[in-house]
Amino acid sequence: RVRRQRQMCIRDSMGGSEPDEVISLTSGYHENPDTFVALSVFAAAACELSSGKALSKLGSPVKDYDRQTPLRPTIEAHTITGSVIYIDSHQNAITNISRELFDRVGKGRAFEIFVQSKHYVLDRINEQYNDSDPGDLLAIFNSLKLLEIAIREGNAAGLQKLNTNSIIRVKFKEG
What is the pTM (predicted TM-score) of this model? Predict the structure, then answer.
């Protein structure tokens, strides 16, 4: 059985790029295989922190950890260029384009969403997955309010050859 390491960090109050502290959670924070990690491990640790327990008391310090820089979409004239940041268990491609950014740049204008290339173009965003027919490529804002590319009852990542870092462009009509 492989033991996965769980880490928590606290960023400095000035929003710096390096956390003040990173720890590996130890005894008392066992993952229950029947639940999500966020519920079974990190929620328990968060409860301890909220009750005043010091982060350092939850585990042992970690000096070498995986540092990741979040990718941010770029805005150029009437275009948002984002990327796929996660492929979920249903093979939907979640992007780094938020609803807030989409609305702020789009200002209610008509748009086209280009998936990987100009061969796959979407011009609407679904409210629900079943707003499209089975097998249709679709765009939807998920529960995190991030733009998601999916295929109703299908495998968007596999069929569209999407992976993390695949490019998604949203071009708004001028005027």
Answer: 0.64
